[in-house]
Every structure is written in C-alpha cells, then in structure tokens.
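Our example pasted here:


***
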Amino acid sequence: MLRRAALLQCAWCGNRPGFLRDWFRRYDSCRHCGLAVQRDGEGFELGAATVNVMVTLGALIVAAAIPIASTYPNVDTGLLIAVLGVVALLLPIVLYPFSFTIWFAVELFMDPPSQAALDAADDRVRDILDLNA
C-alpha cells in the first residue's frame, strides 16, 4: 500500500490519480473504487500534515548535518541558512499530495475498511458512473 501511495495512486485499488484532482485539490473519494478518504470522523488532514512535517523535518536535519559535518569548524552559516530556508519552504509544497496518499495508506493499514464502507464505496462509484453517462 505504501508503494502505491508513494506513486500517488489509491492505496486500496492502485488506480491513478485516485482521489487527487490536481496538486492541491482532492476528491472526497477515489474515482475508481469509491473508497472515502475521510472514513470515520475527523482528523485525516492532521495525519497527512504530520507526515509532511516529519518528512520535512527529517530532510532539514540531514540537509543541515551534511554541510556542518563536512566543513566544520568553518561553516558558512549564511549559505546554510539560505539553503535550509529554501528547503523548508519548498519541500512541504512538493510533498503535499504525497502526504495525503501516504497517510491514507497508513490509515487503511491500521484500520481496514468495513464491509459497510466497501458497500458505500460501490454506491459512490455507481453514482460517479451515472453522472458521467
């Protein structure tokens, strides 16, 4: 499931683009399997934001540690701060859709959909197909 999510596919069915409309917008459910993104209440965005923050923070630590370790004790702090600032601003934007698909995969792994959720997903797919017909 994580491999599918890393490729911006639906973690459940593997369809692309799954629930992503474009880089910053998404559907409420996968366009192929119909599985809802927010299944049991609130908090999906918080999990996706947490994934984004954790990956960005890890990248910043690595991006800071490598030049500090390789140039110590003469670290060019101005350049280091500029590079880290660019990484801190751009990486969350680049990771935005990946954080949603990865969190969706983690949530599916921790709490697989019930039969009722799968039946509701089938109904959503029928509704989507009826709208497109």
